[in-house]
Amino acid sequence: MHPKRFPVASACGVEGWRSRVVHHGAEFVVASKPPGIQVPSTVDNVRESLVAKIEEVGDGDGWDLNVDPTSASFTLTLSFSRL
Fold this sequence. Notes:
- By secondary structure, the protein is α+β, with helices and mostly antiparallel strands.
- The protein has helices at residues 8-11, 13-20, 50-61, and strands at 21-24, 29-31.
- It is built from three helices and two strands; from the N terminus they run ααββα.
- Strand 1 and strand 2 (29-31) form a beta hairpin.
């Protein structure tokens, strides 16, 4: 089997992912998703996804996260700034 790969997942590192968490609360997490990575895990790659990386950061920081992408509501928010 050749899983679909998302190199950006490992390129960010733990500190990089930690810095992408904008807010975490009891019921939700707000994260800045980089391009080139899936939000939920794929069938053939459960480790290189936004959900997996945020859970990884949360576990290391003692957050009580149990993200279930099948029941959670994912919203993509785009923000623009004028230079």
